[in-house]
Amino acid sequence: MEKLKKLNNPYLPAIVGIIALLILGQTVTSGFLSMNNISSILMTTAILTMASIGQAVVVISGDSGLDMSIGAVMSMTALFGPMIVLGSGTVSLIVMIPAVLIMGGCVGLLNGIGVRVIKIVPLVMTLIMSNVVNGFAIMITNGQPSVSVSKELQSISSVLVGPIRYLTAIVVILLIVLEIYFLRKSRYGRSLVLVGDNYNAAELCGINSQRIVILAYTFGGAMAGLAGLMLVGYAGTAQMNMADSYTMLSVAAVVIGGTKLTGGKGSFIGGALGAMVLILITNILQALNMAAGLRSLIQGIILIAILMTNSRAPKLRQ
Prior knowledge:
Layout: H1 2-7, H2 12-28, H3 35-60, H4 70-80, H5 89-116, H6 122-141, H7 151-154, E1 159-161, E2 164-165, H8 166-185, H9 187-197, H10 199-204, H11 209-235, H12 246-256, H13 268-287, H14 292-317
Antiparallel strand pairs: 1-2
Helix pairs in contact: 2-13, 3-8, 3-11, 3-12, 3-13, 4-5, 4-6, 4-11, 4-12, 5-6, 5-11, 8-9, 9-11, 12-13, 12-14
């Protein structure tokens, strides 16, 4: 019985996938497991992990919730975050972080109100907000962003000890803290899982389900905002719609990590493992020198296969 429980570990598919992809990557190119490449993989995984944390909270909240505005929010904060310049570069960086959290949180709040108060389908509401955010960014920048990324912001991708960039370590620590104390032990985290599992039952238990869901979307937007700042700091430059691909990648990451698309069950750590799987796939395709169009096609097919497998899993278990 214990062996069966271990085999049902939701992290197991992602862990097996990571090991297999590392072996495949080293087979494809001899330098795949070099310290420099591993450092780059961990850094890009950290950015996607931050986006997947926000997506996971929304998905766990239930009602077939998906935040399709995450990529747009990341692109927005990547554009507008570096524009905040107050005093020295360090002071600006300290101000940028709460600013992008507020920017993303406001978009998430509007998503939550649209979904729970106005009763718009989550997919439709978040897609609408994605268009609104993209339109706002185009209006402000006239479609030609001119962003100067400070050295302090770019320093988030600098090396602290050996090949490990310090932002990666910060994200790992934040991930563990959020997983243990926010999702598992806090009253809000437990309420979130109950609401996602059965909205009406949670209401009967005295939980303000509407507030829980709205806060979930707000938190998801805030995490997306922070991920956008991390992305522009790593890239060193900002472009329109630079984070659009992160929307579906964040969905795929949480699914690979064992989060149920129907809500009520999920994990931030699982999302992080799923993020690493996707980043490894991307790196392997790049190592094979595939054309950008072919890479996108293969990634799309892989994402479809992952989502189809997830949707069939409950039926297979039954």
